[in-house]
Design brief:
Elements lengths: L9 H5 L5 E4 L6 E5 L5 E9 L2 E9 L5 H16 L4 H16 L3 H16 L3 H19 L9 H12 L3 H20 L22 H4 L13 H8 L5 H12 L3 H5 L6 E2 L4 E4 L10 E4 L2 H9 L20 H17 L18 H13 L4 H7 L7 H6 L5 H15 L6
Antiparallel strand pairs: 1-2, 2-3, 3-4, 5-6, 6-7
Helix pairs in contact: 4-5, 4-7, 5-6, 5-7, 6-7
InterPro entries: CB, DNA_brk_join_enz, Integrase-like_cat_sf, Integrase_catalytic, Integrase_DNA-bd_sf, Integrase_DNA_bind_dom, Integrase_recombinase_N, Phage_int_M
Keywords: DNA integration, DNA recombination, DNA-binding
Protein name: Site-specific integrase
Length: 416
Amino acid sequence: MPKRSPELKALEVKRLFKPGRHAVGGVQGLYLNVTDTGARSWILRVIVNGSRRHIGLGAFDDVSLAEARDLAREMRKKIISGIDPVAERKAALARAEHRRGLSFSDAFERYFADKLESELSNPKHREQWRSTLTTYAYPVIGNKSVDLITVEDVLAVLKPIWTTKTETATRVRQRIERVLDWSAAMGHRSGVNPALWKGSLQQMLPAPTKVKVVVNHPAVAIDEVVRWFAVLQTRDGIAARALTFLTLNASRSQEIRKARWEEISFETATWLIPAEHMKMKEPHRVPLSARAINLLRQAPRFAGCPLLFPSLRGGEMSDATLSAVMKRMHNAEVDCGRKGFLDPVSKRPAVPHGLRSTFRDWVAERTDHPREMAEIALAHEMGSEVERAYRRGDMLEKRRRMMEDWANFISGRNQA
């Protein structure tokens, strides 16, 4: 038999101010909890389905000792009869919330907490979700119940920005659709999602590709890339080596900056990039050319640092660091009276991401390598879902020959 606490009188309980839990008796497990700040509240400590629970019964100023004991007895009776009072309370709150309607802003907050916060590993992406919906959706539908949101409401959000901020508007639509899908799954709305594009909004808004002005990343011209690469080899420092490795593999900046030694196999001359470092969130194998392997063999390794190309402080290099190398290369050329390294179409100075376009143009215009092989090398999504399901391989060894040809080309060994 558990030891019973003495049954305190109301005046005795009123005088309890020492921080901690004080058993007040009358009902087993009933305590007055006093915080370090002096706040006091009632707590019932019980075992529910084998787990210890601390069930709040209200603030001391709002609930009398007699009322707290009555509530505690009621709770214990429910537990004895097999009812979880905490689960019962949550269900009642959910039913009440459903009856009064869940607003879009509240739906987003719950969806964010339940799914997005753990699903989106990049803090920047999480902030983009919140920022776009707060800026564009909330003023129109933020306070509206999700079960009352219509196609007209979604159009009212999108139309003002559809032709002027098309890419942003497209993401806003997708994010509204996902919040409303979650709302339907949780029982807060029914029927067709009003933010659905196919068969719905696509009949009312022009296709994004028809109104969006595509601004490509400035790229080094094919005929200039050999000279550009030669200039890059005169540059010292980790950032220059990282940019060299990026060029040899036609990689994205993120993949290079996050690359770790454990991802590299010198035996098979392969780089296995994990899904979390890839834009498409799929693992990607990269066949490393002889020049890429040689670069890694000569690269210094820093004690306690797993990164191939760490920053000066040992952490992950910033995207701006790679861009700065290219900017300095361009400016040095201009200072010497040359035109620098400009995109042949936009006439803007080339940037690291544009090197992927240079590689793609080289494959298409200067080689017989298949288009799909280049797309796989760039880790682009290829074909329909069915086509991707049937194409199980990643053409690794065929791509190895292509990447060796690319390394030879930019090194000036093969001017094909």
